[in-house]
Specification:
elongated, binds zinc ion, 2 domains, 39% helix, 21% strand, 16 strands, Rossmann fold, 5-stranded mixed beta sheet, BirA Bifunctional Protein, domain 2
Length: 425
């Protein structure tokens, strides 16, 4: 028996209530904040991620799904959401549009990772990117959008973790200080950290090993080493967050694993779980576009895993609004009635009424049981003899009342029932 590949999941109709719920909130919030939707291909030229995410990162070295197509080109399934959007911005000349260009996306993300709860090899992500604006007020807008999403779907107890990791002017000095500090403890570090010290020192602050935690706590802070421009940028961000009454925790251990991040970095953590399972996060990446298109474009964005949002909603016992659409079951007895039922069902569906029917001849009892199982609001019962007299029976399945209705008045009667259902007195 063949099954889904490890680390992937089928999304069944029963799962859709949560998915539609969070997706609808994300889309309406993006509309309110003025972010237009973009869709990029599931796979890209492998070089896009090698140049942006960076050689030497876990993503590029261990986690990408890379393959040669039949023409010999190297392609990679999207391992993160930002680089493809920046590629599209440059490719389509969006730098000529009024800036900033504000984009949102819903995308599948592929990483060959150890599967665990809320972390799949194919997962799905909501993301936004604002391109062409360096002012920190837009950093605050992006953070607010993310928190608005969590709040509107009903997540509570979340915390915003905030840091600034400097830029090309001040980070090299900081990296030197950080490296010097870690060199004095090199023998006590885990194997991974010994490698990071040579290849990607900022990631030292990201180590999850218990034995490395004391060094992370004592390490120099980026915030103490910011240049005047980065400092002013961070002050504007904090002032803007204050103006929106958004609380945050300064967290000097927060660095992003990806090389192109500059200045603002943030994560949102669920209650009491902490960074191992951040709900979402993002940051500024003013250095990214140059790796793709030889053009400097400031940018900031976030990504947040949809499965992880749903997992946290379920942990908190938050159920989606599950208002079922008004639906009608067409029960038929006899061949002529059956044929009439097919036409009637189709007519109702053209009018946007959810209509269900039996696909083969069954007893009325069996059909009404099926109507109940499908949570139909009412049933239209059609028999050959009644139909010959132009009559059908309309039964309200909620109140178990029924009335004879002229076939010609049926659609209007159903429209009235649907209106009453949607707008209860
Ligand atoms: Zn370590
Ligand atoms: Zn700086």
């Amino acid at each position: 028996m063949l099954q889904t590949p490890r680390g992937t999941a089928d999304l069944l109709p029963a799962d859709q209530a949560y998915w539609s719920y969070v997706t609808a909130h994300f889309q309406s919030i993006c509309e309110a904040f003025g972010y237009g939707e973009i869709r990029t291909p599931v796979f890209e030229d492998t070089r896009l991620f090698q140049r942006t995410v960076g050689e030497g990162t876990d993503i590029v070295e261990k986690e990408m799904y890379t393959f040669s197509d039949r023409g010999g080109d190297s392609l990679t399934l999207r391992p993160e959401g930002t680089a493809p959007v920046v590629r599209a911005y440059l490719e389509h000349g969006m730098h000529r549009l009024p800036q900033p260009v504000k984009l949102s996306y819903i995308a599948s993300i592929f990483r060959y990772d150890r599967p665990q709860a809320g972390r799949l090899r194919q997962h799905h992500q909501f993301g936004v990117e604002a391109l062409g604006e360096e002012a920190a007020t837009i950093d605050a807008e992006i953070i607010s959008l993310l928190l608005t999403l969590y709040r509107s779907v009903g997540l509570t107890g979340i915390s915003l973790q905030l840091n600034n990791i400097g830029d090309a002017a001040c980070r090299p000095q900081y990296i030197e200080d950080l490296t010097a500090y870690y060199r004095s403890h090199v023998h006590a570090l885990c194997d991974n950290c010994q490698a990071r010290l040579e290849r990607n020192p900022l990631r030292l602050l990201d180590c999850k090993e218990d034995s490395c935690q004391p060094f992370i706590q004592e390490a120099p802070h980026t915030l103490d080493n910011l240049c005047a421009d980065c400092d002013a940028h961070f002050s504007t961000l904090k002032r803007s967050l204050d103006a929106m009454e958004i609380e945050y925790t300064l967290n000097h251990t927060l660095v992003r694993g990806l090389d192109y991040y500059t200045r603002t970095v943030f994560e949102v953590w669920p209650e009491a779980v902490g960074r191992q399972s951040a709900l979402g996060g993002g940051g500024r990446y003013d250095g990214l576009a140059r790796h793709i298109g030889k053009r400097d474009v400031p940018g900031i964005g976030f990504g947040t895993g949809i499965e992880r949002i749903i997992l946290n909603l379920q942990r908190q016992g938050v159920a989606p609004d599950e208002r079922q659409p008004f639906s009608v079951y067409i029960a038929t007895l006899g061949e002529r009635a059956g044929t009439y039922g097919i036409g009637l069902t189709n007519d109702l569906r053209q009018r946007g009424i959810r209509a269900l029917l039996t696909y083969k001849q069954r007893s009325l009892k069996a059909q009404l049981r099926q109507a109940g199982n499908q949570a139909a609001d009412c049933a239209v019962i059609v028999g050959d003899d009644e139909l010959a007299q132009g009559q059908v029976l309309l039964r309200d399945l909620k109140s178990s009342t029924q009335e004879n209705v002229a076939a010609t008045d049926l659609v209007q009667a159903l429209e009235r029932l649907r209106a009453g259902e949607q707008d209860p007195q």
